[in-house]
Amino acid sequence: xxxxxxxxxxxxxxxxxxxxxxxxxxxxxxxxxxxxxxxxxxxxxxxxxxxxxxxxxxxxxxxxxxxxxxxxxxxxxxxxxxxxxxxxxxxxxxxxxxxxxxxxxxxxxxxxxxxxxxxxxxxxxxxxxxxxxxxxxxxxxxxxxxxxxxxxxxxxxxxxxxxxxxxxxxxxxxxxxxxxxxxxxxxxxxxxxxxxxxxxxxxxxxxxxxxxxxxxxxxxxxxxxxxxxxxxxxxxxxxxxxxxxxxxxxxxxxxxxxxxxxxxxxxxxxxxxxxxxxxxxxxxxxxxxxxxxxxxxxxxxxxxxxxxxxxxxxxxxxxxxxxxxxxxxxxxxxxxxxxxxxxxxxxxxxxxxxxxxxxxxxxxxxxxxxxxxxxxxxxxxxxxxxxxxxxxxxxxxxxxxxxxx
Length: 405
Known about the structure:
By secondary structure, the protein is an alpha/beta fold. Helices cover 35% and strands 19% of the residues. It has a domain at 67-99 and 202-376: Rossmann fold, CATH 3.40.50.1100. It has helices at residues 73-78, 104-118, 131-143, 177-188, 202-219, 234-249, 269-274, 304-311, 320-334, 340-355, 373-379, 394-403; strands at residues 4-8, 14-15, 29-33, 67-70, 82-87, 90-91, 96-97, 123-127, 147-152, 160-161, 168-173, 193-195, 225-229, 258-264, 314-318, 363-368, 383-384, 389-391. The two termini are 39 Å apart.
């Protein structure tokens, strides 16, 4: 049995095990694990880190985790001596086997296992701009767990899985990601349905935190810098929390990594907030719209601002042109295709090198949050998911679900 308590970040008060919110304020929750040292379990992939995941059991059907390697190609091109890459996609030659080609699988696996452990027969409801929904659909189909997805109609082409579709209901939303979130929230409040929680879900955050754990084991210490492209910023929070646990362990160093988070301007609320700038006009076409979240968990206890403040972090605003150039650079030097979102992180790393924000000898971890789509097509068929219904109002989704269609 895993041993942990769920506490409010703000005051440390203990909350119910499946809570998503503090009872007293707007603070994030955080898992307080009984195990203070990182002791790997004899399980595959992500389940090696069982002691630092908020679970009572592991999921036997799926297990994929991060793969960290030391770069030679990109590192040499931009002048870095110790650049490590966490590849969170499909690249089996490097040990990466996330079949939906996104690190969102690291969130879906513990979240779906946690849902299973509730044992109340409820259906999880997820809103997504594409990658998260694809990951949850894959895991739910493998485990035969009911799932309801709300995805903007523009993102439906991203909806494919490598297994036969399970008990997954997919709604195509006439609107953007914010509209999908709003509809999902209405359905989540109805009996028999539950929100997955987004940034407030400790299983999602600690699943993503295994990126830092895997890297620390590979490198032998906590890196000096951590680069990631973000929409909500939850990945940055996760890296910070995992690093704090590694410091308590005592074997991986005593310094937090400096967070370097990147957004795609002009749709970059975290970038503008942290740099105290007036937001530019948003909602223009983006290099990758999965990086846009209108309501990031920014200025709340335990949120993005706290993570940046604690790590002396920095947020970059990357243009489409910079991201496109960085994508080509990475694929040419590392010889694997990547999604558009991590290209924004590669561009931020290039900016940091040119500006002197990192030194050539620093130990740097670059999180490539998705890639290997071309590679996975060699080994698996892509099963495109067609919407079960197209909706413009949440009432339409409820009517569809209640009709049993």
